[in-house]
Amino acid sequence: MNRYNEHVLLVEDDAPIRNFIAFALQSEGFRCTPADTGHAALNLLLSEKVDLMLLDLGLPDLDGMEIIKRVREWSDMPILVVSARDQDKEKAAALDGGADDYLTKPFSATELLARVRVALRHLYKQRGLQTQTSLEVGGLSIDLKKRLVHLDGEELHVTPLEYSLLALFFKNIGKVLTTGYIIREVWGAGYGSDTQALRALMAGLRRKLEENPAKPRYIKTEIGVGYRLVDE
């Protein structure tokens, strides 16, 4: 049994995949409610308390992107997309639309359960930010009130842009942030889509954070999509 025991809504129209995922979740102690259409999923969300949704994008009645849009109008529950669509633009669109993570089929039960746990931990940390001013991952910590960063107990000198980038990651621990989202949050909505500036900023920050910037420990690259601050 896991320590969560949360209610997971599984939205998947492929019966073998749905059964595989449901078995994996239930074996770990999660309560799992299946739905094979988008409308069935939305009706369940209105009638039951759901802690996390696993969502296939290719449903027979509603596109998964539409479901994400509707749910995000009223809920911050983690949404983990499980889809055969493996194009980077599809992943980025789902994440920009409000999904917390994206898992491409086929995948193992181990990977699925790990992503579910990360998404739930991210939710709990997000909800605690109003009272929590100091956050830590491994030996890296940030004080959001004093605007200080420490690495292994030593204060780390970062530029204002580097601090803004790092604070954004700490406010979204474990979540994939697309390059477009990061640029809008750090530079502003009118900045455009200068990914070169983001790559340069990321490279400078990694040189300060990582023993080996080529194999980062803290901020991982999600190729073609964006970046993620690991949840250790």
Question: What features would you describe in this structure?
Answer:
With 232 residues, the chain is an alpha/beta fold. It has 2 domains: 121 residues, Rossmann fold; 96 residues, Winged helix-like DNA-binding domain superfamily/Winged helix DNA-binding domain (Arc Repressor Mutant, subunit A), CATH 1.10.10.10. 41% of the residues lie in helices and 21% in strands. The chain has 8 helices and 12 strands. The strands form 3 sheets. Strands 2-1-3-4-5 form a 5-stranded parallel beta sheet, sandwiched between helices. A 4-stranded antiparallel beta sheet has the order 6-7-8-9, covered by helices on one side. α6 crosses α8. The longest helix has 19 residues. The two termini are 20 Å apart.
Q: What is the terminal-to-terminal distance?
A: 20 Å
The CATH first-level class of the largest domain comes to Alpha Beta
- Helix-residue proportion: 40-55%
Low-pLDDT residue spans: none
Helix-strand layout with pairing:
Blueprint: E1 7-11, H1 15-27, E2 31-35, H2 38-47, E3 52-55, H3 64-72, E4 79-83, H4 88-97, E5 101-104, H5 109-127, E6 134-137, E7 140-143, E8 148-151, E9 154-155, H6 160-170, E10 176-178, H7 179-187, H8 195-209, E11 219-222, E12 226-229
Protein name: Stage 0 sporulation protein A homolog
Keywords: DNA-binding, Phosphoprotein, Transcription, Transcription regulation
Pfam family, one: Trans_reg_C
